[in-house]
Specification:
The complex is a heterotrimer of chains A (about 375), B (about 100) and C (about 290). Helix content of chain A is about 35%, strand content about 20%. Chain A has 13 helices and 16 strands. In chain A, helix 1 (about 15-25) packs parallel to helix 6 (about 150-165), helix 3 (about 60-75) packs parallel to helix 4 and helix 11 crosses helix 12. The longest helix of chain A is centred in the middle third of the chain and has 18 residues, at about 150-165. Chain A is globular. The termini of chain A are far apart. Chain B has one domain: 2-Layer Sandwich (Alpha-Beta Plaits), CATH 3.30.70. In chain B, about 10% of the residues lie in helices and about 20% in strands. Chain B has two helices and four strands, in the order E-H-E-E-H-E. Chain B has helices at about 45, 80-85, and strands at about 25-35, 55, 65-70, 90-95. Chain B is elongated, with a radius of gyration of 17 Å. Chain B starts with about 25 loop residues before the first strand and ends with a strand. Chain C has one domain: Thiamin diphosphate (ThDP)-binding fold, Pyr/PP domains (Rossmann fold, 3-Layer(aba) Sandwich), CATH 3.40.50.970. Helix content of chain C is about 30%, strand content about 15%. Chain C contains nine helices and nine strands. In chain C, strand 6, helix 6 and strand 7 (about 205-210) form a beta-alpha-beta unit. In chain C, helix 1 (about 35-50) crosses helix 6 (about 185-200), helix 3 (about 105-110) crosses helix 4 and helix 4 (about 115-120) packs across helix 5 (about 165-175). Classes of the chains: A alpha/beta (about 375), B alpha+beta (about 100), C alpha/beta (about 290). Strand 10 of chain A pairs parallel with strand 3 of chain C, so a sheet runs across the interface.
């Protein structure tokens, strides 16, 4: 479709850029439920998808939205839903199913102040650990944190690519500030947007084992209606997809699901380093807060502090190795995030006592300002 | 040809075999039971409209008494036992046989 | 007339080709009716001649939720209560497929109750086969949304204080275009009803009353499966066309069965086709 990719330079809302990124990535099914501050994604999809032969369906709740995008993905569509923290809480039930069944899909969480109904219209970054551990059991998740409207577009495309390649739900961990920000976004021509597709079976149905994998640990996915008679179950299952209820089978399956992401973590993990080469203090941040952090780092440099920025693009998998690496170089980590230290704990864990870790935290509602981060750099400077 | 005599067993006494009986196709049924699939619910025995089946005395591998065919000639081929068996342990095949 | 007892696989059960035979025997208790209901569904698919690869079965959690694991279609055993929204997505992605939700009353009506009524409201093109055994069987016989008033379960040891849903009335009110109820004893009616439902466009719903010897029959002194089935034989009343509001099931009283609703209303997918046509003419997509 010619108007699927709105190539050009736009002055666009972050939520809308996310929707356009999804469409550019080939998403043609969106199931959603209104929630501030993610509603604009649903509204954009509701307008755009029917023009492209795609389907927007408004489900009765987030439980249903998540289930619907899994079902549609099993039918072969690229699918997405968008929500905020309270909705993510409900979706996590079926995100677990998506992980267990290895169904590609994208879940956007435009974070707001929490817990509970919290601050619907105001910013928060408190769902980092919810995104990581919110569903039951041990699993790995991929979560991307956009810092700009441009990245709302780019990372949505990336989220689809990662979801497809690794056959897993991917969370776009945006925040209210980025979602409701309007700024410049450049949408490239379609031929410049690289798209990855899920692995597909190359053998006939009688030879197909739905969960048999090669060394990639990613099983090829047969779609509904192709004669493969796929069976998928949320129960612990064997290579045929059949339930098998014992510890050994569980170990084999869950271990593979974990390793599937861990093994590929070096290809999945993305971060940006600014002025880190000679830095003595590393500011770790992500999402909207990374913009304040960048400003703070530049200002710190001007004031004679050798600060650098490590901006997480994949919040999950967390770049532990890089933190470990940096802890041999820097004297201090300062983690800036609009929560009470969810990523700081990760940095502390990875730094393992080698380097002190300070935090600049707020609970939500307002952004962390560059001055607040700068102050932490001054106060904490060894 | 059977004589039109009162049979004494309560059936209609003046029955006469049709002249073209040898040309009329008739229903032939075949009941296959897989006794080891049976879980002994008893539905086939209880709900057969012609009491073709009975619970057997023998035990299957699971320890249930599977059904057995006791009145094959009464089977009308309705397949109710086949459809009501939760284990799919009974097959009733029916075909029209044309006498030659 | 020839009869055989033990034979090798010389003859094949008509359901065999639709079953994952390597997974049989199924886990259902002796006397459980889910196998009968599943068989009626397989017979319906067979008799309609729907290509096997064009059928998908989606189940939730519970005893009936295990159906997806036995049928040789594309089959999905999803989360508790969510088979309908999962199937909604699947149907939209694969509109050429016949998508059937096969699950139990606890799954579809209690934890999934919201999805049930909304699927009926939007008239999404699904057939829902809801096996009603009046309790949560898989977890050992607890009270559920269909447990009759005063009935005993492991969580209503003094009798159920609450009142059950009248499922046909519920889904009919919510907008289902085809609503029927049968017991598993009415296996031929059930098969014919499933055939009708599979041919309707829109949301069709069939409640299948089934014995649960362990979870329901025994604690309520109805007896094992056979006694429950005898109860159906003696108390079932076929009343096609009955207004669903009069189709409530009461404990140890009549069991009204039949086809209660069969009407035409544009289905979700039918409306969607029109929607595409209108949307593709909408010039507003050119906005940045």
């Amino acid at each position: 479709m010619s108007n699927a990719v709105l190539t050009g330079t736009h002055f666009m809302l972050g939520d809308h850029a996310c929707a356009e990124g999804a469409i550019a990535a080939g998403c043609r099914f969106f199931a959603g439920y209104p929630i501030t501050p993610a509603t604009e994604i649903a509204e954009r999809m509701a307008r755009r998808l029917p023009q492209l032969g795609g389907v927007y369906i408004q489900m009765e709740d987030e439980l249903a939205s998540m289930a619907a995008i899994l079902g549609a993905s099993c039918g072969g569509m690229k699918t997405m839903t968008a929500t905020s923290g309270p909705g993510l809480s409900l979706m996590l039930e079926n995100i677990g199913l998506g992980i267990m069944l290895e169904i590609p899909c994208v879940v956007v969480n435009v974070q707001r102040g929490a817990p509970s109904t919290g601050l619907p219209t105001l910013v928060g970054q408190g769902d980092v650990m919810q995104a990581r551990w919110g569903s039951h059991g041990d699993y790995e998740i991929i979560a991307l944190a956009p810092s700009s409207v441009q990245e709302m577009f780019d990372f949505t495309v990336l989220a689809f690519n990662l979801a497809e390649r690794y056959r897993t739900p991917v969370i776009l961990l945006a925040d209210e500030a980025v979602g409701h920000l309007t700024e410049r976004v450049v949408i490239p021509p379609p031929e410049e947007i690289e798209l990855w597709e899920r692995p597909r079976p190359t053998v006939p149905p009688e030879e197909y084992l739905p969960y048999a994998t090669d060394e990639s640990l990613i099983p090829p996915m047969a779609l509904a209606g192709e004669g493969y008679f796929v069976h998928m179950t949320g129960l612990t299952h064997d290579e045929r997809g059949y339930p098998i209820i014992n510890g050994e089978a569980h170990e084999r399956l869950v271990r593979r699901l974990l390793e599937k992401i861990r093994k590929h973590a070096p290809e999945i993990i993305r971060y940006e380093e600014v002025l880190m080469d000679d830095a003595e203090v590393a500011v770790v941040s992500y999402g909207i807060t990374a913009r304040s952090a960048l400003r703070a780092v530049r200002e710190a440099r001007r004031q004679g502090i050798r600060a650098g920025l490590l901006r997480l693009i994949t919040v999950w998998p967390f770049p532990e190795d890089q933190i470990r690496e940096l802890s041999r170089q820097v004297e201090l980590f300062v983690v800036a995030e609009i929560n009470q230290g969810q990523i700081r704990r990760e940095v502390e864990r990875a730094a393992a006592g080698q380097v002190p870790v300070a935090g600049v935290h707020k609970l939500g509602g307002t952004l962390i300002t560059p001055d607040e981060i700068l102050e932490a750099l001054w106060v904490r400077k060894p | 040809m059977a004589a039109n005599t009162f049979s004494g067993n309560g059936s209609f006494p003046f029955w006469r075999e049709p002249l073209d009986a040898q040309q009329i196709p008739h229903l032939s049924t075949s009941i296959t039971i897989f006794p080891d699939l049976c879980k002994g619910c008893g539905y086939c025995v209880e709900f057969c409209p012609a009491q073709v089946l009975a619970t057997s005395d023998r035990l299957n591998a699971k320890g249930y008494h599977p059904p057995e065919v006791v009145k094959p000639e009464a089977c009308t081929g309705c397949q109710f036992c086949m459809r009501v068996c939760p284990e799919y342990a009974i097959i009733v095949e029916k075909k029209l046989e044309v006498p030659t | 007339m020839g009869t055989q007892t033990v034979t090798p696989q010389a003859v094949q059960h008509p359901y065999t080709r639709y079953l994952r035979t390597d997974r049989l025997p199924h886990i259902w208790c002796p006397g459980c009716g889910i196998g009968i209901a599943m068989g009626a569904f397989l017979a319906a698919v067979d008799e309609l001649g729907i290509p096997q690869e064009k059928v998908a079965v989606v189940s939730g959690i519970g005893c009936t939720g295990r159906v997806a694991g036995y049928v040789k279609f594309d089959s999905y055993h999803t989360t508790h209560g969510r088979p309908i929204p999962f199937a909604t997505g699947l149907k939209i992605a694969r509109p050429e497929m016949t998508v059937v939700v096969f699950s139990g009353d606890g799954d579809l009506v209690s934890i999934g109750g919201n999805h049930l009524i909304h699927a009926a409201r939007r008239n999404i093109d699904l057939t829902v086969i809801c096996v009603n055994n009046f309790n949560y069987g898989m977890t050992g016989g607890q009270m559920g949304p269909t447990t009759p008033h005063r009935a005993r379960t492991t969580t209503t040891p003094y009798g159920n204080l609450e009142f059950p849903f009248n499922l046909p009335y519920l889904v009919a009110a919510a907008g289902a275009v085809y609503v029927a109820r049968w017991t598993v004893l009415h296996v031929f009616h059930l098969r014919e009803s499933i055939k009708e439902a599979l041919q309707r466009r829109g949301f069709s719903f069939i409640e299948v009353v089934s014995p649960c010897p362990v979870g329901f029959g025994r604690p309520n002194k109805i007896g094992e499966g056979l006694e429950e089935m005898r109860f159906y034989r003696e108390h079932a009343l076929i009343q096609n066309g009955l207004h669903p509001k009069d189709a409530a099931l009461s404990f140890r009283d009549r069991i009204v069965v039949g086809k209660f609703v069969d009407e035409a209303r544009p289905s979700f997918l039918q409306v969607l086709e029109d929607h595409f046509r209108n949307a593709s003419r909408d010039p507003s997509h050119r906005e940045g």
